[in-house]
Amino acid sequence: MSSLGSTIVSLRDIGKTFDSGTTALDRFNLDVHAGEFVSLLGMSGCGKSTTLRIVAGLSAASEGAVEWPAGASKIGFVFQEPTLMPWADVAANVRLPLKLGGADEAQSRAAVAQTLERVGLASFAQAYPRELSGGMKMRASIARALVTEPELLLMDEPFAALDEITRFKLNNDLLTLWQQLRRTVIFVTHSVFESVYLSQRIVVMTPRPGRVFTEIAIDAPYPRGEHFRTSAEYGGFCRQVAEALGQAMAGDAS
Amino acid sequence: MSDRALRIGLPVLMLALVVLVWDLAVRAFAIPPFVLPGPGLVFATLIADAGLLGQSLLVTLTITFEGFALAAFGGIALAIAFNQWRLMEYSLYPYAVILQVTPIVAVAPLLLIYLPQPLAVLACAWIVAFFPVLANTTLGLNSVDHNLIALFDLYKASRWQLLWNLKLPAALPQMLAGLRIAGGLSLIGAVVAEIAAGSAGAGSGLAYRIAESGYRLNIPRMFAALLLLSLAGVAIFFALSALSHLALRRWHESAMTRER
């Protein structure tokens, strides 16, 4: 495994209880290191998305603290749905974060063009979201998250709604981007296979209330590609992670 | 025959049929014009009274447009205010509903007591037309994708940025639907108020012409004026539909033609 960077964000004993009385998270602890690709893995409703929203500051923790040892990082967020503005073309959607930051169109043109190039949408800048396939919408959504050059990229089951072929393609492209840009990624998923394929480290969560059940390092080298996806090593990791997930869920039932 | 041709051709055919039956019935039963004038006589009256009716049409349309403009502006502005200040919505929304559910025919005479006639007519047009704009725009402003709001939060968007860049564009389809209803309603409001006002004068609108012709048993002119009112309503509807289509054609489902 590559040497660990400094800690970019620490979650300390995070608890989250909603007004409805549902406890989503209970004493959740996590350190994320700079440049790391870490996945939160758990079944639906285990508080994975809540964790991301708390890190992003979109939701406040009921207990505990989110600490930023090196100061608050710039954050990019990719939602489960593409969440594009249907009335704006792809370029305008990607430009949005810069626009909200006060940059005008001329100032942000280069950044938008470069980011669209990165995600493979350069020729679709003038297209409207409805004209794009599901995978392309998600690429636009990722471009929008990357356009501000965030240190920390939060992804909330971004590929869950895509077909398998598209998902594999986007997994590969995401890893390529991550290796080019060396940003920190926290990736939420309920797929064992996807988490093993992508991550350096997988945090397995218990069902509600969400807690860290165990952490598993996936110390296979990058770049990872189809040979990794079909390797015995990959199968072994998947089995190990699936067993841990099974135990995490069984722990709840007992 | 293509679908489009049928959609235009069939109503025209229906119209021709009805006019034919109408004309034949009037001739066959020798119905006197003060009971039911034939279509030919209505058309002749329309031509003969073109000056008078045209002037009245202009009066009614002016009031309709003024009422519509005020309703559009007032409805949208109030919806934005409600959206920005919850307490204002709580305080005023019930009264907007009351204003809407109270029949305008019953309110018009009261308005005519307190306001000078032209202003009372305008107020009627405004009252009936502004509520659909308010209700639809409010619905639109409150139906914005929550994740997009979260995204604006993440990038620390100001209230103004949130309103201008997200809420208003997202509410546009509902806002335009409200305006389309308001267009027809402002015509109705203007007509109701004119009929309630009922006083003569050079500045009298089409509705007044109808009432006046009724008293004088000038039934052909009643029909001619009614025809003009209908045409005005249809024209307003099509104009607003076209505006809605132009504004939404590039992105909204309602304005899309799909190949099957």
Strand line-up in the sheet with most strands of chain A: 5-6-7-3-8-9
Strand content of chain A: 15-25%
**SS strand fraction of chain B:** under 5%
Radius of gyration of chain B: 23 Å
Annotation field: number of helices of chain A: 8
Q: How many DSSP E strands of chain A?
A: 9
User: Helices and strands of chain A, in N-to-C order?
Assistant: EEEHEEHHHEHEHEEHH
- General shape of chain A: globular
Secondary structure tally: strands of chain B: 0
Morphology call of chain B: flat
The CATH fourth-level homologous superfamily of the largest domain in chain B: MetI-like
CATH class of the largest domain in chain B: Mainly Alpha
Description:
The complex is a heterodimer of chains A (254) and B (260). With 254 residues, chain A is an alpha/beta fold. Chain A is built from eight helices and nine strands. Chain A has helices at residues 48-56, 90-100, 105-118, 134-146, 164-181, 192-198, 226-229, 232-253; strands at 7-17, 23-33, 37-41, 63-67, 75-78, 152-156, 184-189, 201-205, 212-217. In chain A, the strands form two sheets. A six-stranded mixed β-sheet of chain A has the order 5-6-7-3-8-9, with helices on both faces. A three-stranded antiparallel β-sheet of chain A has the order 2-1-4, with helices on one face. In chain A, a hairpin with a 5-residue loop joins strand 1 (7-17) and strand 2 (23-33). Chain A is globular. By secondary structure, chain B is an all-alpha fold. Chain B folds into two domains: 1-30; 38-255, MetI-like (MetI-like fold, Orthogonal Bundle), CATH 1.10.3720.10. Chain B is 82% helix and 0% strand. Chain B is built from ten helices and no strands. The longest helix of chain B is centred in the C-terminal third of the chain and has 39 residues, at 159-197. The radius of gyration of chain B is 23 Å and the shape is flat. The interface between A and B is medium-sized, with 22 and 22 residues.
